[in-house]
Protein backbone atom coordinates (compact mmCIF):
# COMPACT_ATOMS: atom_id res chain seq x y z
CA UNK A 1 0.00 0.00 0.00
CA UNK A 2 2.68 2.41 1.02
CA UNK A 3 6.10 3.80 0.37
CA UNK A 4 8.36 2.72 3.15
CA UNK A 5 5.89 1.41 5.68
CA UNK A 6 7.10 -0.38 8.79
CA UNK A 7 4.85 -2.40 11.08
CA UNK A 8 6.38 -2.44 14.57
CA UNK A 9 5.19 -4.76 17.29
CA UNK A 10 6.02 -4.30 20.97
CA UNK A 11 5.79 -7.30 23.31
CA UNK A 12 4.66 -7.35 26.94
CA UNK A 13 8.11 -6.83 28.50
CA UNK A 14 8.79 -3.99 26.06
CA UNK A 15 5.66 -2.32 27.51
CA UNK A 16 6.24 -3.45 31.11
CA UNK A 17 5.86 -0.02 32.74
CA UNK A 18 5.76 3.69 31.94
CA UNK A 19 9.50 3.84 31.26
CA UNK A 20 9.29 0.94 28.79
CA UNK A 21 6.27 2.50 27.08
CA UNK A 22 8.21 5.76 26.71
CA UNK A 23 11.13 3.82 25.23
CA UNK A 24 8.75 2.15 22.76
CA UNK A 25 7.32 5.57 21.84
CA UNK A 26 10.87 6.85 21.19
CA UNK A 27 11.55 3.88 18.89
CA UNK A 28 8.36 4.53 16.92
CA UNK A 29 9.04 8.27 16.82
CA UNK A 30 12.56 7.74 15.46
CA UNK A 31 11.27 5.38 12.76
CA UNK A 32 8.79 7.97 11.51
CA UNK A 33 11.77 10.03 10.30
CA UNK A 34 12.33 7.42 7.58
CA UNK A 35 8.77 6.58 6.68
CA UNK A 36 5.36 5.54 7.89
CA UNK A 37 4.83 3.39 10.95
CA UNK A 38 1.95 1.27 12.18
CA UNK A 39 2.48 0.12 15.78
CA UNK A 40 1.01 -3.10 17.16
CA UNK A 41 1.00 -3.74 20.89
CA UNK A 42 0.74 -6.63 23.32
CA UNK A 43 -0.69 -6.08 26.77
CA UNK A 44 1.69 -4.79 29.44
CA UNK A 45 3.76 -7.72 30.80
CA UNK A 46 1.78 -10.10 33.03
CA UNK A 47 -1.60 -8.46 32.32
CA UNK A 48 -3.04 -11.17 30.02
CA UNK A 49 -2.11 -13.86 32.56
CA UNK A 50 -3.94 -11.95 35.27
CA UNK A 51 -7.01 -11.44 33.09
CA UNK A 52 -7.14 -15.16 32.29
CA UNK A 53 -6.73 -15.92 35.99
CA UNK A 54 -9.67 -13.61 36.74
CA UNK A 55 -11.78 -15.35 34.10
CA UNK A 56 -11.08 -18.79 35.59
CA UNK A 57 -11.62 -17.53 39.15
CA UNK A 58 -15.04 -16.22 38.14
CA UNK A 59 -15.98 -19.60 36.66
CA UNK A 60 -15.39 -20.98 40.17
CA UNK A 61 -17.52 -18.21 41.63
CA UNK A 62 -14.51 -16.63 43.36
CA UNK A 63 -15.41 -12.96 42.93
CA UNK A 64 -13.01 -11.90 45.71
CA UNK A 65 -10.11 -13.14 43.62
CA UNK A 66 -11.58 -11.30 40.62
CA UNK A 67 -11.77 -7.99 42.47
CA UNK A 68 -8.20 -8.42 43.72
CA UNK A 69 -7.00 -9.01 40.15
CA UNK A 70 -8.99 -6.15 38.59
CA UNK A 71 -7.83 -3.77 41.35
CA UNK A 72 -4.22 -4.64 40.47
CA UNK A 73 -4.91 -4.08 36.77
CA UNK A 74 -6.49 -0.72 37.45
CA UNK A 75 -3.64 0.31 39.73
CA UNK A 76 -0.79 -0.59 37.35
CA UNK A 77 -2.43 1.10 34.36
CA UNK A 78 -3.34 4.14 36.46
CA UNK A 79 0.31 4.40 37.55
CA UNK A 80 1.38 4.28 33.89
CA UNK A 81 -1.11 7.02 32.97
CA UNK A 82 0.18 9.28 35.73
CA UNK A 83 3.76 8.66 34.73
CA UNK A 84 3.26 9.11 31.00
CA UNK A 85 0.68 11.81 30.53
CA UNK A 86 1.19 15.38 31.70
CA UNK A 87 -1.87 16.96 30.08
CA UNK A 88 -4.69 16.99 32.69
CA UNK A 89 -7.56 16.59 30.18
CA UNK A 90 -5.81 13.66 28.54
CA UNK A 91 -5.27 12.01 31.92
CA UNK A 92 -8.95 12.33 32.82
CA UNK A 93 -9.96 10.98 29.44
CA UNK A 94 -7.61 7.99 29.69
CA UNK A 95 -8.64 7.23 33.27
CA UNK A 96 -12.30 7.21 32.16
CA UNK A 97 -11.48 4.77 29.32
CA UNK A 98 -9.56 2.60 31.78
CA UNK A 99 -12.56 2.60 34.14
CA UNK A 100 -14.84 1.59 31.34
CA UNK A 101 -12.69 -1.33 30.25
CA UNK A 102 -12.24 -2.53 33.85
CA UNK A 103 -16.01 -2.24 34.27
CA UNK A 104 -16.58 -4.38 31.16
CA UNK A 105 -14.19 -7.04 32.48
CA UNK A 106 -15.89 -6.98 35.87
CA UNK A 107 -19.37 -7.47 34.38
CA UNK A 108 -18.16 -10.33 32.19
CA UNK A 109 -16.62 -11.96 35.29
CA UNK A 110 -19.85 -11.45 37.29
CA UNK A 111 -21.91 -13.05 34.51
CA UNK A 112 -19.47 -15.96 34.37
CA UNK A 113 -19.64 -16.39 38.17
CA UNK A 114 -23.43 -16.40 38.06
CA UNK A 115 -23.53 -19.16 35.45
CA UNK A 116 -20.41 -20.91 36.77
CA UNK A 117 -19.46 -21.30 33.13
CA UNK A 118 -16.65 -19.66 31.20
CA UNK A 119 -17.39 -19.80 27.48
CA UNK A 120 -14.51 -19.45 24.98
CA UNK A 121 -16.19 -16.31 23.72
CA UNK A 122 -16.25 -14.71 27.18
CA UNK A 123 -12.63 -15.75 27.76
CA UNK A 124 -11.69 -13.92 24.53
CA UNK A 125 -13.50 -10.79 25.67
CA UNK A 126 -11.85 -10.81 29.11
CA UNK A 127 -8.33 -11.79 28.04
CA UNK A 128 -8.14 -9.11 25.35
CA UNK A 129 -8.62 -6.17 27.72
CA UNK A 130 -4.85 -5.73 28.26
CA UNK A 131 -4.17 -4.79 24.62
CA UNK A 132 -7.00 -2.28 24.71
CA UNK A 133 -5.29 -0.50 27.63
CA UNK A 134 -1.78 -0.67 26.26
CA UNK A 135 -2.71 0.68 22.80
CA UNK A 136 -4.20 3.75 24.47
CA UNK A 137 -1.10 4.16 26.64
CA UNK A 138 1.36 3.99 23.74
CA UNK A 139 -0.76 6.37 21.63
CA UNK A 140 -0.83 8.83 24.56
CA UNK A 141 2.93 8.54 25.04
CA UNK A 142 3.41 9.39 21.35
CA UNK A 143 1.06 12.37 21.59
CA UNK A 144 2.95 13.46 24.71
CA UNK A 145 6.10 13.64 22.54
CA UNK A 146 4.28 15.80 20.00
CA UNK A 147 3.26 13.15 17.46
CA UNK A 148 -0.17 12.47 16.10
CA UNK A 149 -1.23 9.01 17.19
CA UNK A 150 -4.47 7.11 17.56
CA UNK A 151 -5.31 3.85 19.35
CA UNK A 152 -7.10 1.52 16.93
CA UNK A 153 -9.09 -1.55 18.00
CA UNK A 154 -8.01 -4.55 15.91
CA UNK A 155 -11.67 -5.61 15.79
CA UNK A 156 -11.94 -2.88 13.15
CA UNK A 157 -9.05 -4.10 11.02
CA UNK A 158 -8.29 -7.82 11.44
CA UNK A 159 -11.06 -10.08 10.15
CA UNK A 160 -10.97 -13.70 11.35
CA UNK A 161 -12.97 -16.90 11.35
CA UNK A 162 -14.99 -17.64 14.48
CA UNK A 163 -12.58 -19.92 16.36
CA UNK A 164 -12.44 -18.34 19.78
CA UNK A 165 -8.96 -18.45 21.29
CA UNK A 166 -7.23 -19.51 18.06
CA UNK A 167 -8.85 -17.50 15.31
CA UNK A 168 -7.42 -17.52 11.79
CA UNK A 169 -7.24 -14.34 9.71
CA UNK A 170 -9.23 -13.85 6.53
CA UNK A 171 -6.65 -12.02 4.48
CA UNK A 172 -8.70 -10.38 1.67
CA UNK A 173 -11.25 -9.00 4.14
CA UNK A 174 -8.48 -7.86 6.47
CA UNK A 175 -6.70 -6.14 3.60
CA UNK A 176 -9.84 -4.25 2.76
CA UNK A 177 -10.70 -3.17 6.30
CA UNK A 178 -7.14 -2.43 7.37
CA UNK A 179 -6.59 -0.22 4.33
CA UNK A 180 -9.89 1.57 4.80
CA UNK A 181 -9.22 2.27 8.49
CA UNK A 182 -5.46 2.85 8.57
CA UNK A 183 -4.60 4.50 5.22
CA UNK A 184 -6.47 7.74 6.07
CA UNK A 185 -4.60 7.96 9.40
CA UNK A 186 -1.25 7.39 7.71
CA UNK A 187 -2.15 9.93 5.03
CA UNK A 188 -2.60 12.62 7.67
CA UNK A 189 0.63 11.54 9.39
CA UNK A 190 -1.12 10.05 12.39
CA UNK A 191 0.49 6.89 13.83
CA UNK A 192 -2.03 4.06 14.28
CA UNK A 193 -1.42 2.01 17.44
CA UNK A 194 -3.32 -1.23 16.90
CA UNK A 195 -4.24 -3.74 19.61
CA UNK A 196 -2.34 -6.99 18.97
CA UNK A 197 -3.75 -10.46 19.76
CA UNK A 198 -7.30 -9.45 18.78
CA UNK A 199 -9.47 -9.79 15.70
CA UNK A 200 -13.17 -9.94 14.92
CA UNK A 201 -15.42 -12.09 12.78
CA UNK A 202 -16.98 -10.56 9.65
CA UNK A 203 -19.97 -9.58 11.74
CA UNK A 204 -17.85 -7.94 14.40
CA UNK A 205 -17.58 -10.54 17.20
CA UNK A 206 -14.26 -10.24 19.03
CA UNK A 207 -11.82 -13.16 18.69
CA UNK A 208 -8.24 -13.75 19.80
CA UNK A 209 -5.37 -15.31 17.87
CA UNK A 210 -3.93 -17.48 20.67
CA UNK A 211 -1.36 -16.80 23.40
CA UNK A 212 1.55 -14.76 22.11
CA UNK A 213 -0.63 -13.81 19.12
CA UNK A 214 0.48 -10.19 18.79
CA UNK A 215 3.43 -11.36 16.68
CA UNK A 216 0.88 -12.85 14.32
CA UNK A 217 -1.16 -9.61 14.37
CA UNK A 218 1.94 -7.73 13.22
CA UNK A 219 2.59 -9.98 10.23
CA UNK A 220 -1.11 -10.16 9.32
CA UNK A 221 -1.20 -6.36 9.21
CA UNK A 222 2.18 -6.16 7.50
CA UNK A 223 0.95 -8.44 4.72
CA UNK A 224 -2.43 -6.70 4.49
CA UNK A 225 -0.80 -3.28 4.13
CA UNK A 226 2.09 -4.43 1.89
CA UNK A 227 4.59 -3.19 4.48
CA UNK A 228 8.25 -2.97 3.56
CA UNK A 229 9.27 -4.67 6.77
CA UNK A 230 8.02 -5.82 10.12
CA UNK A 231 9.97 -5.29 13.30
CA UNK A 232 9.15 -7.32 16.39
CA UNK A 233 10.59 -5.53 19.41
CA UNK A 234 11.17 -7.83 22.36
CA UNK A 235 13.40 -8.38 25.40
CA UNK A 236 16.28 -10.28 23.76
CA UNK A 237 18.69 -9.36 20.93
CA UNK A 238 16.93 -11.42 18.27
CA UNK A 239 16.48 -15.09 17.53
CA UNK A 240 19.22 -16.87 19.43
CA UNK A 241 20.76 -20.29 18.88
CA UNK A 242 18.64 -21.48 21.83
CA UNK A 243 16.45 -19.88 24.49
CA UNK A 244 18.97 -17.90 26.59
CA UNK A 245 16.92 -18.78 29.67
CA UNK A 246 17.96 -22.41 29.10
CA UNK A 247 21.52 -21.87 27.86
CA UNK A 248 23.10 -18.53 28.81
CA UNK A 249 25.83 -19.00 26.14
CA UNK A 250 23.22 -18.74 23.36
CA UNK A 251 24.24 -16.46 20.47
CA UNK A 252 22.17 -14.15 18.34
CA UNK A 253 21.61 -15.34 14.78
CA UNK A 254 22.24 -12.67 12.20
CA UNK A 255 19.81 -13.88 9.58
CA UNK A 256 17.57 -16.95 9.37
CA UNK A 257 15.02 -18.15 6.86
CA UNK A 258 11.25 -18.16 7.19
CA UNK A 259 11.42 -21.95 7.34
CA UNK A 260 13.94 -21.99 10.14
CA UNK A 261 12.05 -19.40 12.15
CA UNK A 262 8.79 -21.25 11.59
CA UNK A 263 10.28 -24.56 12.74
CA UNK A 264 11.72 -22.94 15.87
CA UNK A 265 8.43 -21.23 16.66
CA UNK A 266 6.42 -24.38 15.97
CA UNK A 267 8.57 -26.40 18.36
CA UNK A 268 8.26 -24.03 21.27
CA UNK A 269 10.62 -21.05 20.82
CA UNK A 270 8.49 -18.46 22.62
CA UNK A 271 10.19 -15.64 20.76
CA UNK A 272 7.63 -16.01 17.93
CA UNK A 273 4.02 -17.14 17.79
CA UNK A 274 4.05 -20.35 15.68
CA UNK A 275 2.05 -18.82 12.83
CA UNK A 276 3.96 -15.53 12.64
CA UNK A 277 5.72 -16.20 9.35
CA UNK A 278 2.71 -17.50 7.44
CA UNK A 279 1.29 -14.20 6.23
CA UNK A 280 4.61 -12.74 5.04
CA UNK A 281 6.63 -15.58 3.57
CA UNK A 282 4.86 -15.61 0.22
CA UNK A 283 5.26 -11.87 -0.25
CA UNK A 284 8.86 -12.07 1.02
CA UNK A 285 8.43 -9.25 3.53
CA UNK A 286 11.42 -9.30 5.90
CA UNK A 287 10.74 -9.64 9.61
CA UNK A 288 13.27 -8.33 12.14
CA UNK A 289 13.46 -9.40 15.76
CA UNK A 290 15.10 -6.67 17.84
CA UNK A 291 15.70 -5.74 21.47
CA UNK A 292 13.64 -2.75 22.62
CA UNK A 293 16.04 -2.36 25.56
CA UNK A 294 19.04 -2.10 23.18
CA UNK A 295 17.63 -0.56 19.99
CA UNK A 296 21.15 0.16 18.71
CA UNK A 297 21.67 -3.58 18.08
CA UNK A 298 20.54 -4.74 14.70
CA UNK A 299 18.83 -7.98 15.72
CA UNK A 300 17.90 -10.97 13.57
CA UNK A 301 16.57 -10.64 10.05
CA UNK A 302 14.16 -13.31 8.85
CA UNK A 303 14.08 -13.68 5.07
CA UNK A 304 13.29 -16.22 2.38
CA UNK A 305 16.84 -17.55 2.15
CA UNK A 306 18.33 -16.79 5.56
CA UNK A 307 22.08 -16.61 6.02
CA UNK A 308 23.88 -19.42 4.24
CA UNK A 309 25.88 -21.33 6.76
CA UNK A 310 28.24 -24.22 6.31
CA UNK A 311 27.02 -25.79 9.48
CA UNK A 312 23.96 -27.95 9.27
CA UNK A 313 22.41 -26.98 12.57
CA UNK A 314 21.49 -23.40 13.40
CA UNK A 315 19.44 -23.60 16.55
CA UNK A 316 17.91 -25.86 19.17
CA UNK A 317 14.47 -25.50 20.65
CA UNK A 318 12.38 -27.26 23.28
CA UNK A 319 8.72 -27.65 23.99
CA UNK A 320 7.17 -28.68 27.30
CA UNK A 321 3.54 -29.02 28.44
CA UNK A 322 3.05 -31.66 25.80
CA UNK A 323 1.72 -35.20 26.13
CA UNK A 324 2.63 -38.39 24.30
CA UNK A 325 -0.33 -40.58 23.37
CA UNK A 326 0.29 -44.14 22.21
CA UNK A 327 -2.18 -46.45 20.52
CA UNK A 328 -0.70 -49.92 20.53
CA UNK A 329 -0.86 -53.64 20.74
CA UNK A 330 0.18 -56.66 18.69
CA UNK A 331 -3.20 -56.69 17.02
CA UNK A 332 -2.65 -53.45 15.18
CA UNK A 333 0.09 -54.92 12.98
CA UNK A 334 -1.41 -54.94 9.54
CA UNK A 335 -4.79 -53.77 10.81
CA UNK A 336 -5.90 -51.44 8.05
CA UNK A 337 -7.12 -47.99 8.91
CA UNK A 338 -5.67 -47.70 12.42
CA UNK A 339 -3.69 -44.57 11.60
CA UNK A 340 -6.68 -43.03 9.84
CA UNK A 341 -8.93 -43.81 12.80
CA UNK A 342 -6.39 -42.45 15.29
CA UNK A 343 -5.97 -39.12 13.56
CA UNK A 344 -9.64 -38.77 12.72
CA UNK A 345 -10.33 -39.11 16.44
CA UNK A 346 -7.69 -36.45 17.18
CA UNK A 347 -9.24 -34.17 14.55
CA UNK A 348 -12.73 -34.75 15.98
CA UNK A 349 -11.37 -33.62 19.34
CA UNK A 350 -10.17 -30.41 17.65
CA UNK A 351 -6.59 -31.31 18.58
CA UNK A 352 -3.51 -30.11 16.81
CA UNK A 353 -1.09 -33.03 16.46
CA UNK A 354 2.44 -31.72 16.99
CA UNK A 355 4.52 -34.77 16.11
CA UNK A 356 3.87 -38.30 14.88
CA UNK A 357 6.03 -41.40 15.09
CA UNK A 358 5.26 -45.02 14.32
CA UNK A 359 7.38 -47.98 15.37
CA UNK A 360 8.69 -49.90 12.36
CA UNK A 361 7.09 -53.13 13.56
CA UNK A 362 3.76 -51.33 13.39
CA UNK A 363 3.01 -52.22 16.99
CA UNK A 364 2.19 -48.74 18.00
CA UNK A 365 1.45 -45.30 16.73
CA UNK A 366 2.46 -42.47 18.98
CA UNK A 367 1.80 -38.80 18.65
CA UNK A 368 2.17 -35.67 20.69
CA UNK A 369 -0.42 -33.08 21.55
CA UNK A 370 -0.59 -30.00 23.71
CA UNK A 371 -1.25 -31.21 27.28
CA UNK A 372 -4.39 -29.06 27.36
CA UNK A 373 -5.84 -31.14 24.50
CA UNK A 374 -4.91 -34.53 25.94
CA UNK A 375 -8.03 -35.48 27.97
CA UNK A 376 -10.34 -34.58 25.08
CA UNK A 377 -8.24 -36.53 22.60
CA UNK A 378 -8.08 -39.64 24.81
CA UNK A 379 -11.86 -39.60 25.24
CA UNK A 380 -12.32 -39.47 21.44
CA UNK A 381 -9.77 -42.26 20.93
CA UNK A 382 -11.40 -44.53 23.49
CA UNK A 383 -14.75 -44.01 21.81
CA UNK A 384 -13.32 -44.60 18.32
CA UNK A 385 -11.46 -47.77 19.35
CA UNK A 386 -14.11 -49.11 21.77
CA UNK A 387 -14.72 -52.27 19.75
CA UNK A 388 -11.06 -52.85 18.92
CA UNK A 389 -10.20 -52.51 22.61
CA UNK A 390 -12.96 -54.93 23.56
CA UNK A 391 -11.67 -57.45 20.98
CA UNK A 392 -8.09 -56.81 22.11
CA UNK A 393 -7.06 -55.83 18.60
CA UNK A 394 -5.92 -52.58 20.12
CA UNK A 395 -4.45 -53.44 23.52
CA UNK A 396 -3.80 -50.07 25.01
CA UNK A 397 -4.15 -46.35 24.61
CA UNK A 398 -1.59 -44.80 26.94
CA UNK A 399 -0.72 -41.28 27.96
CA UNK A 400 2.61 -39.89 29.07
CA UNK A 401 2.51 -36.23 30.13
CA UNK A 402 6.09 -36.18 31.47
CA UNK A 403 7.80 -35.61 28.18
CA UNK A 404 9.34 -32.79 26.16
CA UNK A 405 10.15 -32.33 22.49
CA UNK A 406 13.60 -31.04 21.60
CA UNK A 407 14.16 -30.01 17.99
CA UNK A 408 17.41 -29.43 16.14
CA UNK A 409 16.75 -26.91 13.36
CA UNK A 410 18.55 -25.63 10.25
CA UNK A 411 17.86 -25.25 6.53
CA UNK A 412 21.24 -26.69 5.71
CA UNK A 413 20.65 -29.87 7.69
CA UNK A 414 19.21 -31.12 4.44
CA UNK A 415 21.89 -33.10 2.74
CA UNK A 416 24.36 -32.70 5.61
CA UNK A 417 25.13 -36.26 6.63
CA UNK A 418 25.70 -37.30 10.21
CA UNK A 419 23.44 -34.90 12.08
CA UNK A 420 21.18 -37.63 13.41
CA UNK A 421 24.22 -39.72 14.35
CA UNK A 422 25.84 -36.84 16.24
CA UNK A 423 22.57 -36.08 18.00
CA UNK A 424 22.09 -39.66 19.15
CA UNK A 425 25.67 -40.20 20.24
CA UNK A 426 25.78 -36.87 22.13
CA UNK A 427 22.77 -38.06 24.13
CA UNK A 428 23.91 -41.68 24.27
CA UNK A 429 27.22 -40.63 25.90
CA UNK A 430 25.22 -38.94 28.62
CA UNK A 431 23.00 -41.98 29.14
CA UNK A 432 19.92 -40.11 27.91
CA UNK A 433 17.15 -42.27 26.49
CA UNK A 434 15.26 -41.06 23.41
CA UNK A 435 11.59 -42.04 23.56
CA UNK A 436 10.68 -41.24 19.94
CA UNK A 437 12.14 -39.48 16.90
CA UNK A 438 10.62 -37.63 13.96
CA UNK A 439 12.16 -35.97 10.94
CA UNK A 440 10.04 -34.36 8.28
CA UNK A 441 11.02 -35.03 4.68
CA UNK A 442 11.92 -31.32 4.42
CA UNK A 443 14.88 -32.13 6.74
CA UNK A 444 14.71 -28.67 8.32
CA UNK A 445 14.43 -30.27 11.72
CA UNK A 446 15.04 -33.41 13.67
CA UNK A 447 12.73 -33.76 16.66
CA UNK A 448 13.32 -35.93 19.69
CA UNK A 449 10.95 -36.92 22.42
CA UNK A 450 12.62 -37.22 25.80
CA UNK A 451 11.67 -37.22 29.48
CA UNK A 452 10.67 -33.71 30.52
CA UNK A 453 13.05 -33.66 33.48
CA UNK A 454 16.00 -34.09 31.08
CA UNK A 455 15.00 -31.24 28.79
CA UNK A 456 17.58 -28.69 29.97
CA UNK A 457 20.42 -31.27 29.86
CA UNK A 458 19.44 -32.38 26.36
CA UNK A 459 19.24 -28.83 25.04
CA UNK A 460 22.61 -27.94 26.56
CA UNK A 461 24.23 -31.12 25.27
CA UNK A 462 23.03 -30.55 21.70
CA UNK A 463 23.87 -26.85 21.72
CA UNK A 464 27.40 -27.72 22.61
CA UNK A 465 27.58 -30.78 20.31
CA UNK A 466 26.85 -28.56 17.30
CA UNK A 467 29.26 -25.85 18.48
CA UNK A 468 26.58 -23.19 18.81
CA UNK A 469 27.89 -21.75 22.05
CA UNK A 470 30.15 -18.71 22.35
CA UNK A 471 33.40 -20.52 21.77
CA UNK A 472 35.84 -20.39 18.86
CA UNK A 473 36.66 -23.69 17.26
CA UNK A 474 40.20 -24.95 17.59
CA UNK A 475 40.75 -24.48 13.88
CA UNK A 476 39.08 -21.24 13.01
CA UNK A 477 39.19 -17.71 14.29
CA UNK A 478 36.20 -16.47 16.25
CA UNK A 479 35.26 -14.17 13.37
CA UNK A 480 35.32 -16.74 10.63
CA UNK A 481 33.56 -19.28 12.84
CA UNK A 482 30.82 -16.82 13.63
CA UNK A 483 30.50 -15.67 10.07
CA UNK A 484 30.07 -19.26 8.95
CA UNK A 485 27.43 -19.88 11.56
CA UNK A 486 25.72 -16.59 10.75
CA UNK A 487 25.86 -15.37 14.34
CA UNK A 488 27.16 -12.16 15.85
P1 LIG B 1 7.36 -10.61 24.01
O1 LIG B 1 6.72 -10.25 25.32
O2 LIG B 1 8.24 -9.54 23.47
O3 LIG B 1 6.38 -11.16 23.01
P2 LIG B 1 8.17 -13.32 24.66
O4 LIG B 1 8.40 -13.55 26.13
O5 LIG B 1 6.90 -13.80 24.08
O6 LIG B 1 8.38 -11.77 24.38
O7 LIG B 1 9.39 -13.93 23.82
C1 LIG B 1 10.71 -13.56 24.15
C2 LIG B 1 11.37 -14.69 24.93
O8 LIG B 1 11.48 -15.83 24.07
C3 LIG B 1 12.78 -14.42 25.33
O9 LIG B 1 12.86 -13.71 26.54
C4 LIG B 1 13.41 -15.82 25.42
O10 LIG B 1 13.47 -16.31 26.73
C5 LIG B 1 12.41 -16.70 24.68
N1 LIG B 1 13.06 -17.52 23.64
C6 LIG B 1 12.82 -18.84 23.43
N2 LIG B 1 13.58 -19.31 22.43
C7 LIG B 1 14.32 -18.29 21.96
C8 LIG B 1 15.27 -18.14 20.92
N3 LIG B 1 15.64 -19.15 20.13
N4 LIG B 1 15.80 -16.91 20.72
C9 LIG B 1 15.44 -15.87 21.47
N5 LIG B 1 14.54 -15.94 22.48
C10 LIG B 1 13.98 -17.13 22.73
N1 LIG C 1 -0.96 -10.46 25.42
C1 LIG C 1 -1.14 -11.71 24.72
C2 LIG C 1 -0.54 -12.85 25.51
O1 LIG C 1 0.00 -12.64 26.58
C3 LIG C 1 -0.60 -11.65 23.31
C4 LIG C 1 0.88 -11.44 23.19
O2 LIG C 1 1.58 -11.17 24.18
O3 LIG C 1 1.39 -11.53 22.07
O4 LIG C 1 -0.66 -13.97 25.08
MG1 LIG D 1 5.50 -13.06 22.71
Write structural notes for this entry:
This protein is an alpha/beta fold and 488 residues long. The chain has 16 helices and 16 strands. The strands form three sheets. It has an eight-stranded mixed β-sheet, with helices on both faces. Strands 12-13-11-14-16-15 form a six-stranded antiparallel β-sheet. The chain has a two-stranded antiparallel sheet with strand order 5-6. A hairpin with a 5-residue loop joins β12 and β13. α2 packs parallel to α4 and α4 packs antiparallel against α6. The longest helix is centred in the first third of the chain and has 28 residues. The radius of gyration is 24 Å and the shape is globular. The structure holds adenosine-5'-diphosphate (ADP), aspartic acid (ASP) and magnesium ion (MG). Aspartic acid (ASP) binds next to loops.
Largest sheet: 8 strands, mixed
- Overall geometric form: globular
Q: What is the count of DSSP helices, taking H or I runs of 4+ residues?
A: 16
* Strand residue content: 15-25%
In angstroms, what separates the terminal alpha carbons? 34 Å
**How many DSSP E strands?**
16
- Based on CA atoms alone, the radius of gyration comes out at 24 Å
Low-confidence stretches: 471-479
Catalogue the ligands: adenosine-5'-diphosphate, aspartic acid, magnesium ion
Structural class of the secondary elements?
Answer: alpha/beta
Strand order of the largest sheet: 3-4-2-1-7-9-10-8
Mean pLDDT: 92
Helicity, as a percent range = 40-55%
Give a short overview.
This protein is 41% helix and 20% strand.
List keywords for this structure.
single chain; alpha/beta; eight-stranded mixed beta sheet; six-stranded antiparallel beta sheet; 16 helices; 41% helix; globular; binds adenosine-5'-diphosphate; binds aspartic acid; binds magnesium ion
Amino acid sequence: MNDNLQVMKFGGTSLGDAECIRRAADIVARATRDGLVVAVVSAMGGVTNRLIQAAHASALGDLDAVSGLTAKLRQEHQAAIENLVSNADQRVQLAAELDQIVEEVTSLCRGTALLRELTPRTLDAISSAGERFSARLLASALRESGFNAEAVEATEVIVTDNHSGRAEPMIPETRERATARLAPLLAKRSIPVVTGFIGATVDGRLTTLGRGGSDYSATILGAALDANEIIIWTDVDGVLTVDPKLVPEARTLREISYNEAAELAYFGAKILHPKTLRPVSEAGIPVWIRNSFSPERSGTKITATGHPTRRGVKAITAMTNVTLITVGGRGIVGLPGVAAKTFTAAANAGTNVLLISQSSSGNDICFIVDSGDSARTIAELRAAFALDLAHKEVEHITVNPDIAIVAVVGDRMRGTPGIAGRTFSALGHRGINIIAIAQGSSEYNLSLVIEARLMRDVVQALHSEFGLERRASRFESVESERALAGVY
